[in-house]
């Protein structure tokens, strides 16, 4: 018990000694991203620990893999800062879990099982959170692919009616009301670039990099290859692309339906077993 109590006191003392220094160094940085992350009260301390142990230098391969995931999820804008905050969040969760279970072990007269659970969860939580980032990336990519066919159709109709590609894209983005849609978040950034007189080709290339999806790359390539020529050839190219994108959207919708039905298998088995017990128990009790 005293060993675990000593660990708890050591962690508290460590936090009190370095919290002011950590907040002074990283408080402003953390405040900019507190809406996007959890346990931000621990983030300055976690960032200081990461710096002191030189985690990013010691594990460059793992940090690079995480950074690539962050780029795919948030784009190139401030990707390094998001990576640092993600590392801080992983460390914060591990430290808080380890502290809480160690405290519980000390309160329960040195329960080794609780301390073991604390070590286990402190080690397993970061990989689970990284896996969750992968799930968020997949969800974002699917959201973009699902929204892209409708956007391409709108652009095609406007171009066919005589609008330029730039004006058609701006009009579609302005008419959209879903501010949280991943595709339109990137499109809004592209429209801002166009309005700031950035070359259209450069704005589209950056849009493709931020989305980092094959379907978006195909769309931007199709536009860049054909938009200067205009006319019926450009409209035909967009229509063909829209048709292919609608097929991919149907495939994603079909896969989601299959996943939803597979998730219902376990509840159905559970209900079947419960009904079987309810029906069989009276019969067995009579016998």
Automatic annotation (TrEMBL):
Q: Which domain of life is it from?
A: Bacteria
> Type II secretion system protein GspF domain: which residues?
151-282
Q: Which GO terms describe its cellular component?
A: plasma membrane
Q: Which InterPro entries match?
A: CofD-like_dom_sf, T2SS_GspF_dom
Membrane association type: Multi-pass membrane protein
Q: Which Pfam families match?
A: T2SSF
Annotated keywords:
Cell membrane, Membrane, Transmembrane, Transmembrane helix
Annotated localization: Cell membrane
Entry's transmembrane regions: 38-55, 87-107, 113-130, 264-284
Protein's name according to its UniProt entry = Type II secretion system protein F (GspF)
Organism of origin: Aureibacillus halotolerans
Q: What is the lineage of its organism?
A: Bacteria, Bacillati, Bacillota, Bacilli, Bacillales
């Amino acid at each position: 018990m005293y060993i675990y109590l000593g660990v708890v006191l050591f962690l508290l003392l460590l936090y009190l000694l370095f919290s002011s220094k950590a907040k002074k160094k990283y408080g402003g940085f953390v405040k900019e991203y507190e809406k996007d992350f959890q346990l931000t009260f621990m983030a300055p301390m976690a960032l200081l620990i990461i710096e002191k142990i030189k985690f990013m230098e010691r594990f460059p391969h793992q940090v690079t893999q995480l950074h690539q995931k962050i780029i795919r999820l948030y784009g190139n804008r401030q990707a390094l800062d998001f990576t640092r905050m993600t590392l801080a969040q992983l460390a914060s969760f591990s430290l808080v879990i380890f502290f809480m279970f160690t405290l519980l072990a000390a309160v329960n007269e040195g329960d080794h099982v609780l301390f073991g659970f604390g070590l286990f969860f402190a080690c397993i939580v970061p990989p689970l959170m990284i896996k969750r980032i992968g799930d968020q990336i997949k969800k974002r990519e699917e959201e973009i692919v699902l929204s892209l066919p409708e956007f391409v159709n709108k652009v095609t109709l406007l171009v066919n009616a005589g609008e330029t590609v730039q004006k058609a894209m701006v009009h579609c983005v302005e008419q959209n009301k879903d501010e949280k849609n991943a595709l339109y978040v990137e499109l809004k950034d592209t429209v801002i670039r166009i309005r700031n007189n950035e070359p259209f080709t450069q704005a589209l290339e950056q849009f493709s990099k931020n989305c980092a999806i094959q379907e978006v790359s195909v769309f931007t390539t199709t536009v860049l290859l054909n938009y200067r020529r205009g006319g019926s050839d450009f409209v035909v190219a967009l229509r063909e692309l829209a048709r292919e994108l609608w097929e991919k959207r149907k495939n994603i919708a079909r896969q989601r339906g299959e996943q939803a039905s597979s998730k219902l298998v376990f509840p159905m088995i559970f209900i079947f077993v419960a009904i079987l017990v309810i029906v069989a128990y009276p019969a067995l009790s009579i016998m």
